[in-house]
Description:
Elements: H1 2-27, E1 35-41, H2 49-62, E2 64-65, E3 72-73, E4 79-86, H3 91-95, H4 97-102, E5 107-111, H5 138-142, E6 149-153, H6 166-184, E7 190-192, H7 200-208, E8 213-215, E9 222-223, E10 225-226, E11 230-231, E12 234-235, H8 242-249, H9 255-280
Amino acid sequence: xxxRRIKILISILFRxxxxxxNALLFLSGRKxxxxxxxxxxxxVRDDExxxxxxxxxxxxxTVQPIRADYMGKLQAGKNYVIIxxxxxxxxxxRNALPxxxxxxxxxxxxxxxxxxxxxxxxxTNTSFQDGNEEVMRAREIxxxxxxxxxxxxxxxxxxxxxxxxxxxxxxxxxxxKEVLEAVTGKPVEMFxxxxxxxxxxxxxxxxxxxxxxxxxxxxxxxxxELKGLLLGRVRTDPSDSLLEFKLKIxxxxxxxxxxxxxxxxxxxxxxxxxxxxxxxxxxxxxxxxEDSLSGIKE
Length: 298
């Protein structure tokens, strides 16, 4: 809880910095770049419905929602958001999608295909309150309004894909795509990595499988234009306070991405220094020349 409060405080300061930066741009006769934040939910349980409704009302007043497959320019000075849901739990039919559809807000649902109509075997831990939720059935997916609700794959088995070999990874991409296309009768061209777990080789494999947009986990904010294959996402929950939620959809948590980049850079620097020390130190078993000890001989 303490760490969460610290993140909120820093995000407020970062948001104030962005507002100051935008004000200076306006004074110089320029407009700030358009920005787009991608968010993702897992579930919206029955007891969270009212909180979710309040979040969506705030979202509609604050940012411009756009489709998950949007490719193109972002209007200068505007804030955009893409709403996604991982796992495709049945509770979304009751508590989330009706509200989004009522407001005409687009979203994307990502399904772990093997578990359609079943409970998630990866969320059996009692700390997961949505562990008893079922994933939607094929017939329920088929009835979703395609102009507002886009369908994507969340893999076939919902496993850590970096622990699979290349053939298994390919199977995850292709098999889940094939099943969902049979269900919807439409091309499935978006993929969300389970646990945000991926490596560079998977990007090529996903593209070869026919995916045009991939989603992971991260605090990146797209600026000026939305055209990348891979987009990071910020996790949101109905339990988030309205302040926390507003900061997230406005991209005020992007400082965490800069912190990650800095941390990775420091790790690389530390690793290089360690290698240099190893290379410069005398090899094991090598004797030191006697004349190098002359200064300390009695």
